[in-house]
């Protein structure tokens, strides 16, 4: 068969052509470049780090980022496993005549490369933020039409993590747009964690495993335990509302090493009570969500620091099986979540959703613990497990009923090891 070569001039010049190409993807989608893949091995356990947005919004500069890196080391967060220092929206200045993006010269006068060198010098990694649309949510230049150029720029700066937002993307197809950025990162050649942030709108869990390492599943977190905030068109969800989206929607089968349901950045240390903060941290750990902190690390209290660095709770989150917990019991305001862990162990979380105290009288022998998805089960009539309370450090075993009082909005989080024969 003969192929006919037709040469023709582009009908649209430069950017207009790209905009048309981007619009095309609306109708035809995109399989991306067949050679391109996301970088594997970057997020075999949920990423841990910090992000500027929850506490500082657009009020950021290079000093904050440097001091946050310093604090991450000094407070023991780095030793506890946190490694990414992520700059969110509003770091941008303008694009130059060649389309290259530059940071805001007033807030980041030394440039992002110098900041990356500083952060790397502390043994940490630097993350940055962009948006699939023409502008970011904060109205700064987005990456639409500049994906390959921006990814190249980030790589040249030494960026390790890219969060990619979804504001101002009318008519764009999310899978296609995020695949374009994945391909751009692959082409830039520097391993960068790719964090998809389109708030669960196009069910990213169904397609994003091949595209990124984590994907937001819900609207933005709002700094409260059990509330919802809906100004205008946007919505912010409190801790329990985000949990419910995960526990109910059965998203857990999509999560695993290298691909995580992202429940959003943490609000621990931003004003909830200590019990609520402990519960928030425990829930994120149980659900194998990325642990990206959202408080001011430079001024946090000792109690916040202890919550964020609890080694037992972090170990549950970072367990190498990478299984997201399932809700195994809902008894009024009292719920129980179970997370199978490596080596036949389990984590169990009793959650008191209510603002009243609740009593736990848990007879282990009355309930077989089953996770069908992972083909794991325990019958406590036949096996005795030791438990240790990851917050209070108390220990016990499953041969006796578990009796405890839970304060309002608090959790009891246990690691179960065993089994021994009764
Ligand atoms: C969106 C994201 C947030 C944050 C802001 C920045 O709302 O979901 O996490 O990045 O944009 O403008």
UniProtKB/TrEMBL annotation:
Keywords: Disulfide bond, Glycosidase, Hydrolase, Signal. Gene3D superfamilies: Aldolase class I (3.20.20.70), Golgi alpha-mannosidase II (2.60.40.1180). Coiled coil: none annotated. InterPro entries: Aldolase_TIM, GH, Glyco_hydro_27, Glyco_hydro_27/36_CS, Glyco_hydro_b, Melibiase_C. Residues 1-36 form the signal peptide. GO terms for molecular function: alpha-galactosidase activity. It holds the Pfam family Melibiase_C. Its EC number is 3.2.1.22. Residues 331-416 form the Alpha galactosidase C-terminal domain. It catalyses: Hydrolysis of terminal, non-reducing alpha-D-galactose residues in alpha-D-galactosides, including galactose oligosaccharides, galactomannans and galactolipids. PROSITE patterns: ALPHA_GALACTOSIDASE. GO terms for biological process: carbohydrate catabolic process. Belongs to the glycosyl hydrolase 27 family. This is Alpha-galactosidase. The lineage of its organism: Bacteria, Pseudomonadati, Pseudomonadota, Betaproteobacteria, Burkholderiales.
């Amino acid at each position: 068969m003969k192929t006919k070569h037709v040469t023709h001039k582009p009908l649209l010049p430069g950017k207009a052509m790209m905009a048309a190409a981007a619009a095309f993807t609306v109708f035809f989608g995109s399989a991306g470049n067949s050679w391109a893949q996301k970088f594997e091995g970057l997020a075999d356990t949920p990423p841990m780090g910090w992000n500027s947005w929850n506490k500082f919004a657009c009020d950021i500069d290079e000093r904050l980022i440097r001091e946050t890196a310093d604090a991450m080391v000094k407070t023991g967060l780095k030793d506890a496993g946190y490694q990414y220092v992520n700059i969110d929206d509003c770091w941008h200045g303008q694009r130059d005549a060649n389309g290259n993006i530059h940071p805001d010269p007033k807030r980041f006068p030394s440039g992002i490369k110098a900041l990356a060198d500083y952060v790397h010098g502390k043994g940490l990694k630097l993350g940055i933020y962009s948006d699939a649309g023409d502008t970011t949510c904060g109205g700064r230049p987005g990456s639409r039409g500049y994906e390959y150029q921006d990814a190249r720029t980030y790589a040249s700066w030494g960026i390790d993590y890219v969060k990619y937002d979804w504001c101002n993307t009318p008519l764009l197809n999310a899978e296609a747009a995020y695949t374009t950025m994945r391909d751009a990162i692959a082409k830039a050649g520097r391993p960068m964690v790719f964090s998809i942030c389109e708030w669960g709108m196009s069910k990213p869990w169904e397609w994003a495993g091949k595209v990124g390492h984590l994907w937001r599943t819900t609207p933005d977190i709002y700094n409260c335990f059990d509330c919802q905030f809906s100004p205008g068109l946007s919505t912010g969800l409190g801790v329990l509302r985000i949990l419910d989206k995960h526990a109910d929607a059965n998203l857990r089968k999509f999560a695993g090493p290298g691909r995580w349901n992202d429940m959003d950045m943490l609000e621990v240390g931003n004003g909830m009570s200590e019990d609520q903060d402990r519960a928030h941290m425990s829930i994120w750990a149980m659900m194998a969500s990325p642990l990206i902190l959202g408080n001011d690390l430079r001024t946090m209290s000792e109690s916040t620091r202890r919550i964020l660095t609890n080694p037992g709770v972090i170990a549950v989150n970072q367990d190498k099986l990478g299984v997201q917990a399932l809700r195994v019991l809902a008894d009024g305001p009292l719920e129980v979540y179970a997370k199978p862990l490596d080596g036949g162990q389990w984590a169990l979380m009793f959650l008191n959703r209510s603002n009243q105290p609740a009593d736990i009288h848990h007879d282990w022998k009355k309930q077989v613990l089953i996770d069908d998805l992972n083909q794991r089960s325990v019958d406590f009539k036949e096996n005795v497990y030791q438990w240790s309370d990851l917050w209070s450090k108390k220990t016990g075993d499953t041969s006796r009923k578990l009796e405890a009082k839970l304060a309002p909005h608090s959790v009891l989080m246990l690691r179960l090891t065993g089994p021994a024969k009764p």
